[in-house]
Amino acid sequence: xxxxxxxxxxxxxxxxxxxxxxxxxxxxxxxxxxxxxxxxxxxxxxxxxxxxxxxxxxxxxxxxxxxxxxxxxxxxxxxxxxxxxxxxxxxxxxxxxxxxxxxxxxxxxxxxxxxxxxxxxxxxxxxxxxxxxxxxxxxxxxxxxxxxxxxxxxxxxxxxxxxxxxxxxxxxxxxxxxxxxxxxxxxxxxxxxxxxxxxxxxxxxxxxxxxxxxxxxxxxxxxxxxxxxxxxxxxxxxxxxxxxxxxxxxxxxxxxxxxxxxxxxxxxxxxxxxxxxxxxxxxxxxxxxxxxxxxxxxxxxxxxxxxxxxxxxxxxxxxxxxxxxxxxxxxxxxxxxxxxxxxxxxxxxxxxxxxxxxxxxxxxxxxxxxxxxxxxxxxxxxxxxxxxxxxxxxxxxxxxxxxxxxxxxxxxxxxxxxxxxxxxxxxxxxxxxxxxxxxxxxxxxxxxxxxxxxxxxxxxxxxxxxxxxxxxxxxxxxxxxxxxxxxxxxxxxxxxxxxxxxxxxxxxxxxxxxxxxxxxxxxxxxxxxxxxxxxxxxxxxxxxxxxxxxxxxxxxxxxxx
Length: 561
Description:
Elements: H1 3-13, E1 31-34, H2 39-55, E2 60-65, E3 74-80, H3 92-100, H4 104-118, E4 129-134, H5 140-152, E5 158-164, H6 167-179, H7 185-201, E6 215-219, H8 224-233, E7 240-244, H9 259-265, E8 280-284, E9 291-295, E10 305-307, H10 309-327, E11 343-347, H11 353-361, E12 365-368, H12 373-380, E13 385-389, E14 395-399, H13 401-418, H14 422-436, H15 444-458, H16 462-466, E15 474-480, E16 488-490, E17 495-498, H17 502-510, E18 517-522, E19 528-534, H18 538-556
Parallel strand pairs: 2-4, 4-5, 6-7, 6-8, 11-12, 11-13
Antiparallel strand pairs: 1-3, 2-3, 8-9, 9-10, 13-14, 15-19, 16-17, 18-19
Helix pairs in contact: 1-4, 2-3, 2-5, 7-14, 7-15, 10-14, 10-15, 13-14, 17-18
């Protein structure tokens, strides 16, 4: 490493000393903490982003400053790789080491070592390029400045500030830039609105949708999503959206509002009441990467009928399966339809058992991965069409390039032989879905438009959608243990292989309950074991969860040590 580069790193890092007595680690959500502790970390992630770009032949990398559904006083930072996906796991230990290096000298030593090990060309002909985004938190502006300082401490690296954006917008922009297509915020809105219009134009003529069903009320979590939806809705015809909690009316980000609150508490967010009975409602989270729907069933209670990520996945799977079966109908000998696309539905063990049963009864291939978006996305990418969602409302649909090429040529063939046929319309719908959905990452805005288009296509109210299947009652508990690493799981975390004997004991308990299912897994961040249980009644689910928690305590808890 040249002396000029070394002295630049030493002098700039001296301006961002790390906080004393704090150790941060890079997880699925990047780094998150109280915003006051993050200046040094965000500066260092700026360095990491520049190195990542150089390593990958100066591909565009994203750096997003957000703490998603955390409280407003928190903030965070994460990296988007060139695909628009998350930072490669292989780089996470380096991110941890960078964030926690105690002095400029330690930091420099780490960087020199890593640059050599990874063969990163620091004096390349092309500059590193990093797109920066932030959400609406007041702390975002000064943290953005720290990120810029980090990026510019790598010679020649260029920071491009995209302003206040949703997390999925930034991921979309990174993916688009690296594909060599237009990637401004305007381009994002244009792609979403035009593909939505295309789906609306292809709705079958017999589809019925009554007056009350036309209205959608959205809780914007007092965050960036509400702000962007106000802009997007002006470009949409045939969809009446009212945005509440847009952040303009003095509400606090994520306080009694947002998808995380609604999904966990199962109550109406602030600003919603008995006046909304029967109306279709949706809730975005703080940075608009999660979405849940709900309806208010009665005046007497603040409880809601929740439509979570499992039900969204089911809606998307039903629609896509229907389009594929229309597309592959026999009938046109001039058109080659030998290709059989593979559709995969990906869930984690936390998906409600009733949703898994429903999807399997439809004849769909359902697979499980360990908990975490990175595992779900990776598995989904193995299919021609992979759909994944977590119950919390985070998920997307991934289309393979080879399938999209086939679909384009199939559409072309059909248009020249049987233009306007049901088969061609099915091809056009699937192409529109591939453009409407944000394939880089879960995106509440694109997901919301896809839900709306499909409900209209099916002629379904939110109540018809809710009734696809009845969720099994469930309960989640945490058990404090001496050492969480004593639990080792297999089969996508559904089976505990260590400590010996615990799984057999769990099986014996589970067998006592109708439709019983339970699993345990270690927390990723604290010394607790998470217990999940479901059964035919809430009482039975609670009882099973308590019994399994007692087993965990017997095998691993403080009482056993």
